[in-house]
Amino acid sequence: MTDDSKTRKPLEELNLLDDFLFGVVLEDKQNYRDILEIILEEEVPLLQHAQMEKVFRYLPVTRSVRMDVVAIDEDNKIYDAEMQVKNTGNLLKRERFYQAHLDVSLLKPGQVAFDRLNDTCLIMIMPFDLLGKGRYRYTCKIHCVEEPDMEVEDGTVRIFLNTRGTNPEGVSTELIDFLHYVEHSTSENCISTGSERIRRIHDSVQIIKAREDVGVRYMKEWERDHYIREEAREEGREEERLRLNELTKLLLQDERMEDILRGTEDLEYQIELLKEYGLY
Fold it and tell me: Of 4, 58, 193, 227, which one has the greatest count of Cβ atoms within 10 A?
């Protein structure tokens, strides 16, 4: 079985579902605009090129937030597009945290003119159904419980996209075709759609994959991520070694030689001993 953390997927085999390719594609203003217009089904006149991996931090002691690709339109509305491959079980709370950091960063210290807060749109694209209703798109805003039809306009919207939706109600064929293209960014999928925007995006994807500088950048980012993973593994192994040393020391103090021998041969029993001594 191949260890994916030790093998690099060739750049030409990447799909838009891959963070690296998605980020590079959205650095291009036209690509970002096309993708937003497909998702929102309206015109989005962007002002500037997107910023990859923008970091927001309110105070030096607080946790920072890294947003994948951020852009702004002519009405000063801010867009953040994220690709999320794994369902970590906390994505709704994470988006709430991101929204809070983004809002705090938009006002200068001491400024109380809250009406100056930009409207924001946070978008997450996933190969799974986060809300479980089979939809391709979930557009989430604030509503009043007592008045279900009343929308509370605070300038925020969160959109969760499911590339594996089954219910086409309420979304365009173009969006469905695009979400399928996200998972399988091939010429065949591009040809099968009548969308000029998807074809433009695909042409850009092909050009990006052929660029030498992008290949070098991809290699460097993979190496960086690989070293980070290896460092985390080493830290985990060192922590495990220290725990076992402490367990052995405690068992020796209690003269439990048989438990030391059994724990060495039986992993489940070793875990029981670690739990017994509060080390697990």
Answer: 193
Nearest-10 Cα torsion for 135, 39, 209, 52: -110
| Rounded CA separation 165/169 (Å) | 10
Prediction pTM value: 0.75
CA distances from 136 to 33, 65, 113 (A): 20, 27, 37
Q: Which two tokens stand for residue 273?
A: 């001993």
Q: Angle at CA 116, nearest 5°, toward 112 and 122? A: 115
| Residue with more model confidence, 6 or 218 | 218
With tokens 């509305």, the residue in question is: 77
Q: Which residues lie below 8 Å from residue 279, measured CB to CB, with a gap of 6+?
A: 243, 246, 247
Kindly tell me the sign of the dihedral angle through the C-alpha atoms of 133, 139, 141, 145: negative
CA distances to 19, 165, 219 from 9, in Å: 12, 26, 10
Q: For residue 81, list its beta bridge partners.
A: 69, 123
203: part of which helix (H) or strand (E)?
helix 196-210
Q: What is the 3-state secondary structure (H, E, C) of 123-148?
A: EEEECCCCCCCCECEEEECEECCCCC
Contact assessment for residue 157 and residue 139, using Cβ atoms and an 8 Å cutoff: yes
Whether 56 contacts 44, CB under 8 Å: no
